[in-house]
Amino acid sequence: MVRDGVPHPPASIAELEILPGVAAALNRLIERNFRLIVVTNQPDVARGTQTREAVEEINRRLGEELPLTAFCVCFHDTPDNCACRKPKPGLITQAAAEYNIELGRSYVVGDRWSDIAAGQSAGCKTLLIDLPYSQGSRCTPTYRVRDLSEAADVILRELAE
To answer: What is the pTM of this model?
Structure first.
């Protein structure tokens, strides 16, 4: 959800919204045997404005609704200086080890510069979903796309080449 031009995570399942086209785009990738892993920063838990249980409940619902392989979540805030918080690649490399993923043949799709920086640091190709709040990116993605459907198009087109 975007408020005042800034993205915010849903506070509960009641606020969860799966955008049109997301399930179809993910299903197209699943059909090509992609592992779809959500790598997410959730600093509101460390800040005390969200509970870990609420985040996990939202992730469970997403997992029920979408063909996702796993969730890798950083519950820290920036001052914690952990290895798992994007833009550091810790969660990506952890997922790669756990799921036997070759990072050089992998893609990170995100809507923030920290997603792109983490993907680049891990050695992945990156796709920035270019939204108004994505402007001012501190790094250059491999591709810029309008939405997840276009990201899937780009990835599948690369596979066909």
So the answer is: 0.92
